[in-house]
Queue: 4 jobs
Job 1
Amino acid sequence: MRKGNMKKNPTPEETDPEILNTGLPKKLIKRVKIFCDENEMTIQDFVTDAIIDKLALVHKERRKRPRL
């Protein structure tokens, strides 16, 4: 494996949680809670994974656009 492809370990600063307050519809919160209970995961882990997945998808879609 080339050195450029190796993942670095995150620093504590990169993994320290920060509070993010947002308003969501009650029905959506209920669905998330049920999903998390059924899959034995925390809401924090669910939301973190969802944001990471969405950002990766957006980045991937941007890369598909033709460049001038």
Job 2
Amino acid sequence: MVGLADVFWVAASPVWCWGDLDSHGLRILGSARKVLPQVQFLLMDLDTLCQFQRLAVPEPSPHPGEVGCLNAAESLVLDELRRTGLRLEQEHIDWGWAWERTAAVLGGG
């Protein structure tokens, strides 16, 4: 079976991840980074969480275990999510705000 890391153009390309801002979203990011170390996150940071915290809800079943392959900023987000018990689903983030931030990160704005 061929995985994404075995596809040359994927392994040689930047890869971006935008998932729910919760313990499982960060676990997925960490798992993806084990296979594709270049994976970077979008809108899964403390700024996004603070901006839209009023739309966050309790995370019903947080991932209790260790999450590997996170950088310091991502680990801080995970710590904050665990401290508050919250999750922010990506579809609750204002699309205009998300588009502006994404374009800036990817060099289009």
Job 3
Amino acid sequence: MKKSNRRKFLTAAAVLGAGTAVAAMPFPPAGNKNKYPVAHHVFFWLKNPDSKEDRDKLVEGVKGLGKIPTIREIHVGVLASTEKRDVVDTSWQVSELMFFSDVAGQATYQTHPIHLDFVKNYSHLWAKVVVYDVMEV
């Protein structure tokens, strides 16, 4: 095979391979709404922000909230080691992001015994909590 034909073949194979890989990616259809349109995002500031033990204890407690049946998805996190920018708030220590099917499910979560026990058993760890409740549009 000539060098130029081989180069053309390899280029075409690479382009077709990349196109096939992209086509196989699981993208949702355009206009497809999230099946869990209510998000509940909570940020916690620890009383002892440098305490890994307190942070890990709170993370453990937040993960336990996932047992509440109306929570459809839960993401528990700590600060990511991303680029520092003026628009990024890095003052908090633990975050929870929950998704619910509807506002009624979120209301049930608020009064669920597991949530009430969480507040009772872990609130001594935090100095401040900020909540953002969001409805998908």
Job 4
Amino acid sequence: MKIDFPKDFWWGAATSGPQSEGRFNKRHANVFDYWYEIEPAAFYDQVGPDTASNFYNSFKEDIAMMKEIGLNSFRTSIQWTRLIDDLEEGTVNEDAVRFYNAVIDECLAQEMRPVMNLFHFDMPIELQHKYGGWESKHVVDLYAKFAAQCFRLFGDRVTDWFTFNEPLVVVDGAYLYQFHYPNIVDGKKAVQVAFNIALASAKAIAAFRDTNPNPAGRIGIILNLTPSYPATEKQDDLVAARFADLWMNEMFLDAAVKGKFPQELTDTLMQDGVLWQATEGELELIAKNTIDVLGVNFYHPNRVQRPDVSSDSLAVDWLPTKYFDGFAMPGRRMNVDKGWEIYPQAMYDIALNIRDNYGNIPWFVSENGMGVSNEERYLNEEGVIEDDYRIQFIQEHLYWISKGIAEGSNCFGYHLWTPIDCWSWGNAYRNRYGFISNNIHTQVKTIKKSGHWFKGLAETSILEMPDWLATKWDTIGLELETAQTMI
């Protein structure tokens, strides 16, 4: 079976500054740099971000390898902690300007579109300690200064900008569930942080409209969208799934695309006494500064059921999970290394939701990927990792994306996470996601089988599906069962 994608489709991959560059010549530490300094044992094998994949030093060779596997676009992020010298004044660091100019120019020289994100979990630690990071609207204004500098410095060559990557992860990780520094559990602060990030995104968009020198430029946000599937059709499970969608998907998506938060959500937050503090002027600014384009990160679905216990009996601070619990779908397919369910059909549901409920805004898959540990076990005699599981994972997701496109959803690209195995927060290098493997001890990088396969896809924009896989999907429709269990 062959599936045609548009000839101008983005075939690419995504990483971030803090996960790839290393800390070389970086003026400020971010929250993860600092967390590693004070608690290295919190990171897998005590591997921190100091070197990462050495992109700061090897970007020319790395971009050449990306070109070799056919990428026509590449997303990374500009680090606030690298670019800005004086965080209050917003003055720039000249070495950082040189570095990011060189990266952008090298991408363009290799005929690869540079796609730039402005915040990928890397709050400057000084701002976290002094103001509480995103708890502070002063920090929102400092971020807008940083964004304006990026547009001024690089907007003549970068046409595709994104304000944030996965803002919900910042809220959940740092303020609810303790997997991002500062590891606070405070529901009211979490809700305020969510609003402040939405406000920061809108202020960056306003700065883009004012300062961007390129008429072809556009700006968006990257959201991790996880459709919430109820355990049953019982009313309690449907209500739980509805709130899960409001919190996990619609909170940031509505603010970014529609310029307002879902009324159902704000009513609930007000009823619970945790609604954010916002002025009319701030709400008006969010309303006026909506996105041009959307990035969608998708890894796994969200399976939801009613909470096990009444929310009235919870002797804890407010948490969104007072309204829903997750559950493990019987018979699910799993990436057991990561602990995530594999459910490619969700891409189709996302595509139609964007088409039907968000004005069919232009969007692309900004992250999708499969983290696998100990990939050396799949090395062949030629020293190539035979990651057929990753190829199948991509094929299945692209199959459902193509169905969404065929039914009118305005999807223009697909980016794998990640081009080169990168450092991944607390997991460090435990799980590998890249088209290109990285020996973190020698920094020798080698193209995996998936990278060689992707080159053919990117050059032709034709997805070739194995007959057994294509037949199986055509047969089962939206059923969960599949013909093969994946790693």
